[in-house]
């Protein structure tokens, strides 16, 4: 699917405020509301836009402790097994297969250190996990979860 400059600007508008009306977005990109809707529908159908969501500040709901955990797994652990297992833990906000020594990298958020320790113990109890290495986040330097790449 070809994404032109107008599509990019529509996507950027939705990333900035997913509740913006088609009319508001149309004003920003010089299109009518129906034209914006057609483009958004096309972007959704193509899978470019996967959905609309609320972005919640974890600190506002009390989850102020976070860590990255390297998982080391038994030899035949598949990405599908990792996906199923990590989705069982509400503290997991991201999980990735990675290159290097570790098999996966898991991003955890918790209310405090005791909660984080409980989450780590549950994660370590997964049958395929042989060991872990944890790094607790001290401060966030860059936090841009919805960055839209701009065309070159």
Automatic annotation (TrEMBL):
InterPro entries registered for this protein in UniProt: ArsR-like_HTH, AsnC-type_HTH_dom, Dimeric_a/b-barrel, Tscrpt_reg_AsnC-like, Tscrpt_reg_AsnC/Lrp_C, WH-like_DNA-bd_sf, WH_DNA-bd_sf
Q: Which UniProt keywords apply?
A: DNA-binding, Transcription, Transcription regulation
Source superkingdom: Bacteria
Q: Which SMART domains match?
A: HTH_ASNC (SM00344)
UniProt KW DNA damage keyword: no
Q: Where is the HTH asnC-type domain?
A: 3-64
| Designated name of the protein | AsnC family transcriptional regulator
**Which organism does this record belong to?**
Asanoa iriomotensis
